[in-house]
Amino acid sequence: NKSPWTYTGSVGQSQWSEYFPDCGGTSQSPIDVVTTQTKYDPTLSPLTPLGYNQHGSKPFTLHNNGHTVVIELPEWMGLGGLPWLFTAVQMHLHWGNGGPDHGSSEHTINGLSADAELHVVHYNSELYPNISAAMRQRNGLAVLGILIVTGEETNLAFNNILSYLSRIRNADQKAFIPAFDVQSLLPKDLGSYYRYNGSLTTPPCYQGVIWTLFHEMVQISKAQLLKLETILYASRAEDHEKMLLQDNYRVTQPLNRRVIFTSFS
Ligand code: SG4
Ligand code: ZN
Fold this sequence. Notes:
Blueprint: H1 16-19, E1 32-33, E2 39-40, E3 48-50, E4 60-64, E5 69-72, E6 78-80, E7 86-94, E8 108-109, E9 112-113, E10 116-124, H2 131-134, E11 141-151, H3 156-162, E12 174-177, E13 193-198, E14 209-214, E15 218-221, H4 222-230, E16 261-262
Parallel strand pairs: 1-8, 2-16, 11-14, 11-15
Antiparallel strand pairs: 3-6, 4-5, 4-12, 5-7, 6-7, 7-10, 8-9, 10-11, 13-14, 13-16
Bound molecules: 3,4-di-O-acetyl-6-O-sulfamoyl-alpha-D-glucopyranose and zinc ion.
């Protein structure tokens, strides 16, 4: 379970299932959302972030784990609007390589990628004691997916993360950063989303994730995206070969027999 894995190369995503069998399962994430084949579910209510904007004064921890940048969240942040109460654990991002070709989000809509993707990970704290127990179980995790596209304007909320990436350029580095309003990273409309059952998008690819992908995308500037794509290393400070942390997204997986529900018609 501690096997190394990468996005490309000899232990790249087409090999994940050799060491992590769940990665070859039939309910994997991410997926392409074909909007004409989604099903409206009028019972899907708006999600309610709990305490997202009451961050308190305790700093957040920023962590380069060699696969992404993780922002650890305080345990009193949570998510309402699902059949169980979920407790926030962390958020992280997936992105591309700074090149001209776009398309580095994990989820796609009608075959089209966004430029990056933010994930906010929560575990089912009504049924399970902690995230490591929850992530192996059905309905154990709820992940919010936010598609990020570039535009003219700087998104100041994202600077709460981007401004500090220079402190964790190498893998395994951590830094404290000032706490900030996590809700400011989310789209304004939390009532319109796609919902399906899927998996972790990285090994071990456990299949107990309730996915919510928001319909509204969030915009950052081109300069902000370029910074995210070119500042971090996937290698440790002591490693001889420096490898940039880029293209950390998984390709879309077969939908198989699953249905994607929408909260909006
Ligand atoms: C990233 O690799 C995070 O670093 C992992 O979090 C995360 O695993 C993994 O992605 C999968 O999450 O929302 N993309 S995803 O499906 O949250 C978990 C840590 O390693 C269990 C802390
Ligand atoms: Zn993710």
